[in-house]
């Protein structure tokens, strides 16, 4: 490691606030964590942040130190599991880059952070990926009680240039009602087919994200005369309060309640995750009959759910690359819009905080259909 790896940060020359001994005035000092490895080697910073992001709540022995540790764990849990996992991955990438170039990850200079982000863009990383990495570096510094280099003009201008250079990510195609029927048509009634059919229909009926589908446990489902009431303990739109999502009975083969009940019955699931991995055990002998799929105990990952959607799209004759985990949510909301549902109802179904966010999920067909002035011009 070069001498630059342990060089002190010149706050004035790097554009940082002059004081680097505590949190910036506009940051939350409540995130301050004990024994942050300020000035330490990248591996120490990575290991410290891994422990912090894990948010393990310690045994409270009544001491002040234990109470502080417990409060810190609760504050860390204010971020969703997915966000904390994404931040951990981003901080690991940042620390690895710092280790290769002999620069300190904590505190970081704005110049080094800008170079890290620019290097990522030069390797083809998407703008959203780099935006997340910048947010993770900011959180890392806040957690250590330090001003963040991402708040400086040097980093913000670099990110602005990256946004101009990086093309907008292509939105995944909406699995609207017509598309959903085509996805379901070739699915057989074997165990994997029952699972995937239920997954597609539940995701569509509840306008669920792939992470929300992956997190469903049997105890989250309450069957009523009108269908299932699904309790989402945490979602992107509500990090701290549980929300109820109705999954209504249908009158057609698209009924999510019956599809889900068939899967649960066939898989004999009495507790735990609802949507699980399936795999084929190895054959005992070459001439033995095909082995039946084995059902796992762990839930599918969000990425696995995206792959299932893509595989079913490919089997139905679509391009798999057009579809992904957001296709079901986009399809549900777009279908509701086409059916004439009020925007407030769509926002409630999608659990969006604003109508602006809702608009990003809607897929419009012919731009001239339903033109507000079409009948008066």
Give a short summary of the structure.
This protein has 377 residues and is mainly alpha-helical.
Task: Describe the protein's architecture and organization.
The protein has 377 residues and is mostly helical. It folds into two domains: 3-165, Tyrosine recombinase, N-terminal domain (DNA polymerase, domain 1), CATH 1.10.150.130; 177-361, Orthogonal Bundle (hpI Integrase, Chain A). 47% of the residues lie in helices and 7% in strands. The chain is built from 15 helices and five strands. The protein has helices at residues 11-14, 42-54, 64-76, 81-101, 110-122, 127-143, 153-165, 177-184, 191-205, 210-215, 256-267, 302-315, 327-338, 343-350, 355-361, and strands at residues 221-223, 227-232, 243-248, 276-279, 294-299. The chain has a three-stranded antiparallel sheet, with no helix packed on it. Strands 4-5 form a two-stranded antiparallel ribbon. Strand 1 (221-223) and strand 2 (227-232) form a beta hairpin. The longest helix has 21 residues, at 81-101. Residues 1-33 have low confidence and may be disordered.
CATH architecture level-2 label of the largest domain: Orthogonal Bundle
Beta content: 5-15%
Number of domains: 2
Q: In which order are the strands of the major sheet placed?
A: 1-2-3
Low-confidence stretches: 1-33
Overall shape: it is: globular
CATH topology of the largest domain: hpI Integrase, Chain A
The CATH superfamily title of the largest domain: Intergrase catalytic core
The helix/strand class is mainly alpha
Rg, please? 25 Å
N-C termini distance? 72 Å
Mean pLDDT: 82
Helix content: 40-55%
Q: What is the helix/strand order?
A: HHHHHHHHHHEEEHEEHHHH
Largest sheet: 3 strands, antiparallel
Count every beta strand, where a strand is a DSSP E run of 2 or more residues: 5
CATH top level class name of the largest domain: Mainly Alpha
Q: How many helices? A: 15
């Amino acid at each position: 490691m070069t001498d630059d790896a342990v060089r002190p940060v010149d706050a004035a020359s790097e554009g940082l606030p002059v004081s680097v001994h505590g949190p910036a005035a506009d940051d939350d000092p409540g995130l301050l964590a004990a024994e942050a490895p300020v000035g330490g080697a990248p591996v120490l910073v990575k290991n410290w942040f891994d422990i912090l992001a894990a948010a393990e709540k310690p045994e409270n022995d009544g001491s002040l130190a234990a109470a502080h540790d417990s409060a810190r764990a609760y504050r860390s849990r204010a971020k969703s599991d997915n966000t904390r996992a994404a931040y951990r991955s981003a901080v690991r990438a940042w620390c690895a880059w710092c280790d290769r170039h002999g620069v300190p990850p904590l505190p970081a200079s704005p110049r080094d952070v800008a170079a890290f982000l620019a290097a990522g863009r030069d390797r083809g990383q998407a703008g959203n990926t780099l935006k997340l990495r910048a947010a993770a570096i900011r959180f890392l510094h806040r957690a250590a009680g330090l001003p963040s280099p991402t708040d400086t003009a040097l980093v913000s201008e670099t990110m602005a240039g990256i946004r101009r250079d990086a093309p907008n990510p292509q939105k995944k195609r909406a699995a609207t009602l017509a598309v959903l029927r085509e996805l379901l048509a070739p699915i057989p009634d074997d165990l994997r087919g029952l699972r995937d059919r239920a997954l597609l229909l539940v995701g569509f009926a509840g306008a669920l994200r792939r992470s929300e589908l992956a997190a469903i446990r049997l105890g989250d489902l309450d069957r009523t005369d009108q269908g299932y009431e699904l309790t989402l303990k945490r979602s992107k739109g509500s990090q701290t309060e549980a929300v109820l999502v109705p999954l209504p009975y249908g009158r057609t083969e698209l009924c999510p309640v019956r599809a889900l009940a068939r899967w649960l019955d066939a898989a004999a699931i009495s507790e735990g995750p609802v949507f699980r991995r399936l795999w084929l055990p190895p054959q005992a002998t070459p001439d033995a009959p095909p082995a039946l799929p084995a059902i796992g105990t762990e839930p599918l990952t969000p990425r696995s759910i995206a792959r299932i959607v893509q595989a079913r799209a490919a089997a139905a004759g679509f391009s798999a690359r057009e579809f992904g985990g957001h296709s079901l949510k986009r399809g549900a909301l777009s279908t509701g819009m086409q059916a004439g549902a009020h925007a407030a109802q769509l926002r409630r179904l999608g659990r969006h905080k604003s109508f602006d966010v809702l608009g990003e999920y809607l897929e419009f067909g012919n731009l001239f259909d339903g033109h507000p002035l079409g009948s008066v011009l």
